[in-house]
Write a structure and sequence with these properties.
A hairpin with a 5-residue loop joins strand 6 and strand 7. It is rod-shaped, with a radius of gyration of 43 Å. Helix 1 packs parallel to helix 3. It has two domains: 139 residues, no CATH class; 115 residues, Glucose Permease (Domain IIA), CATH 2.70.70.10. By secondary structure, the chain is of the alpha+beta class.
C-alpha cells in the first residue's frame, strides 16, 4: 500500500471513530436528559397526588369535627377527648403549597392522627348513646301507654258524683265501659303481683311494671293470668265484668306511682276523645 493510500485509510478510520464517539456522547446525553426529565415529571405527579390526598383528608377531618360538635359535651368529657383541634391543625396556604413535598407528608400525617382521635371519640360517644337508648327503650316498654280495653270512656280521674250515694267522691282511676267478657290487655311489660277479690274492686289484678309504676284492673269477670307471671304490652290479662261495687260492665283502670294513684290519661296514647287506641 502506498503512503498516500495508507494516510487516507488512517484518516477515514479516525473519522469513523470520532463519528461513533460523537454518536455515543449524544446518545448518553439524551438518555441522561430523559432520565432527569422523567424524574421531574414523577416528582410533579407525586406532588399533585399528595395535594389531592391532603385535600381529601382535610375534608374528612372537617366532617368529623362537625359531627363531634353535635355530640353532648358529657360524651366528649367521658372519652377524655375534649381537644381544641384548631390549635393542632396546620392549614396550607397558597404561599407554601408546592414548595416542600415533605411538608405535605407531615401535614397529612397530622391530619390522619386527628381523624383517628375524632373517630375514637365518636365511637365512645355513640356507645354511650346506645346504652342510653337501650335503657330508654326498656323504660318505655315498662311504661303504661295504651288503652287496656277497646271500649267507651265513661268516667275520668278526680272528683266526681258517686253513682251509689250521689255525694262528691274522689275517683282514683278511669272507667272504660265494654261488654262483659271483652278482652283486657296489659298496657306495658311487667309482672302480675295480685289476682283476686278485693272489696269494692271486685275481681281485680295488679301488674308491677317497674320499681315505681303499677296498674290495677278492677270489676273483672275473669282473669287470664296468674301471680308471678310476666306479661308484655298487648297480652290478654283479664275480661271485662261488673263485679264488686259496679253499676254495669266496665273496667276500672288505675295507674299507681310509688303506690299512689295518678291520672291514667297522662300515660294513655289517645286515638279519639272516647275511643281506645289499642
Amino acid at each position: 500500500m502506498s503512503p498516500a493510500k495508507a494516510g487516507w485509510t488512517v484518516l477515514i478510520a479516525a473519522g469513523v471513530v470520532c463519528l461513533f464517539m460523537a454518536l455515543g456522547f449524544s446518545l448518553g446525553k439524551g438518555i441522561s436528559g430523559n432520565s432527569r426529565l422523567s424524574a421531574d415529571q414523577e416528582y410533579l405527579t407525586l406532588q399533585g397526588e399528595l395535594i389531592q390526598l391532603n385535600t381529601r383528608v382535610e375534608n374528612i377531618q372537617n366532617n368529623l369535627e362537625a359531627v363531634a360538635q353535635r355530640e353532648e359535651r358529657a360524651f366528649m368529657a367521658a372519652a377524655d377527648m375534649n381537644i381544641n383541634f384548631s390549635r393542632m391543625t396546620d392549614k396550607f396556604t397558597a404561599g407554601n403549597s408546592g414548595t416542600d413535598i415533605f411538608r405535605y407528608i407531615d401535614d397529612i400525617e397530622l391530619r390522619m392522627l386527628l381523624c383517628e382521635r375524632l373517630v375514637y371519640a365518636e365511637q365512645i360517644a355513640y356507645d354511650s348513646l346506645a346504652v342510653l337508648l337501650v335503657d330508654k327503650a326498656d323504660q318505655l316498654r315498662h311504661t303504661p301507654s295504651i288503652w287496656p280495653v277497646n271500649g267507651i270512656f265513661v268516667s275520668d280521674f278526680g272528683a266526681r258524683i258517686d253513682p251509689f250515694t250521689g255525694a262528691v267522691r274522689y275517683h282514683k282511676g278511669i272507667d272504660i265501659s265494654a261488654n262483659t267478657g271483652t278482652s283486657i290487655f296489659a298496657p306495658a311489660d311487667g309482672t302480675v303481683t295480685f289476682c283476686g277479690w278485693g272489696g269494692g274492686w271486685g275481681l281485680n289484678l295488679v301488674i308491677k311494671h317497674s320499681n315505681t309504676l303499677s296498674t290495677r284492673f278492677a270489676h273483672c269477670s275473669g282473669i287470664d293470668v296468674a301471680v308471678g307471671q310476666s306479661v308484655q304490652r298487648g297480652d290478654l290479662i283479664a275480661r271485662v265484668g261488673s263485679t264488686g261495687r259496679s253499676v254495669g260492665p266496665h273496667v276500672h283502670y288505675e295507674v299507681l306511682r310509688n303506690g299512689v294513684q295518678v291520672d291514667p290519661e297522662d300515660f294513655i296514647i289517645r286515638a279519639g276523645s272516647a275511643e281506645a287506641a289499642f
